[in-house]
Amino acid sequence: MGWSFKVAELADVPLFNMDVEAVGFPEPVADLRDEIATADAVLFACPEYNNSFSGVLKNTIDWLSRGPKPPLLGKPGAILGAGGRFGTIRAQHHLRQTLFHERMNLVMFPEVAVTSAFEQFDDDLNLINDRYRDQVARLVEALIVLAEP
Questions:
Q1: Would 35 be classed as within a structural domain?
Q2: 105 phi, psi to nearest 5 deg
Q3: pLDDT of residue 2
């Protein structure tokens, strides 16, 4: 079985608002919910800001956790990130806590927290550190196994 990845763009997801939700999901939110509902798994690329994950990602998860069929509910998932001195390990910890609320089935190991990210990528944003490339490969393999029926 072949696997493919699609990058979900979050730029058009509006701030969560229960008044807006009451009349229906905005188009960018509805589209994202449909994409995730039909995906076999979700891989979260987690940035770190102020020792936690980004407000943009939290806002998106808030939209995805709503409604009669929240698309993250029980979905297989994994987390990785690239950052500064500690990678994104603190942000990943907070994200993992949030995703447990959605009862996501998350890959626990390997943890991929690329440290000193500015040194680990080339000018075309390709990951050049073999140790981290191996960790990413093992994480994706574990996610695929987790997502198999």
A1: yes
A2: -95, 95
A3: 77
